[in-house]
Amino acid sequence: MFKRRSVITGGLSSAAAAILSRTAAAQGTARSAKPILIFAGDETSEACKIWRTQWEPLFKQAPVFQKIDYRVVFPKTPALLLKPASWPSDLRWVLDAFLMSQVGVEQGAETPRFFLIQGGQITFTAVGNSAWRDVMWPTLLDVTNSQP
Questions:
Q1: Is residue 111 a contact partner of residue 104, using CB atoms and an 8 Å limit?
Q2: What is the pTM of this model?
Q3: Under a CB-based contact definition with an 8 Å cutoff, are residues 111 and 40 in contact?
């Protein structure tokens, strides 16, 4: 019994170490970069359509847009949003971290979702157009020391 536990624990430790090293490598490249904003949505969501047609154009015209890296994950369906294949390889760690978090477990594929990445870590996430306007937008302005 003891040997079996040791083997299982050792295997889990090895797997965790591999995941953490990949995460650290992905995060290491982002540490010196600008903050990253990820918009995660899907083509079937009405709220995402509103974001893409109303809020996104305004955001792209604002001075804050020049101070961040903006990335989009936008598959056809909400179910695909939770699949690693829908995410760029350098951002898959974000999906992994999200799915392992309490927010990810509770909210899953609710969209539109916004992730703020700073120093290689997810520092903030918000879901919905109201959360964009009321929380994420002011946070971006603060983080980048920008005016609206």
A1: no
A2: 0.78
A3: yes
Burial code of 115-139, b = ≥16 C-beta within 10 A, e = fewer? bbbbebebebbbbbbeebeebbbeb
Rounded to an integer, what distance in angstroms lies between the CA atom of residue 87 and that of residue 51? 19
The span from the CA of 118 to the CA of 135, in Å, is: 16
How far is Cα 127 from Cα 39, in angstroms, rounded to an integer?
10
SS (H, E, C) the chain: CHHHHHHHHHHHHHHHHHHHHHHHHHHHHHHCCCCEEEEECCCCCHHHHHHHHHHHHHHHHCHHHHHCEEEEECCCCHHHHCCHHHCCHHHHHHHHHHHHCHHHHHHCCCCCEEEEEECCEEEEEEECHHHHHHHHHHHHHHHHCCCC
- Look-up: residue for tokens 């306007």? 133
Query: φ, ψ for residue 41 (rounded to 5)?
Result: -150, -170
CB-neighbour burial class of residue 13 (10 A; exposed 0-12, middle 13-18, buried 19+): exposed
Residues 62-115 have pLDDT tens digits of 999 999 999 999 999 999 999 999 999 999 999 999 999 999 889 989 999 999
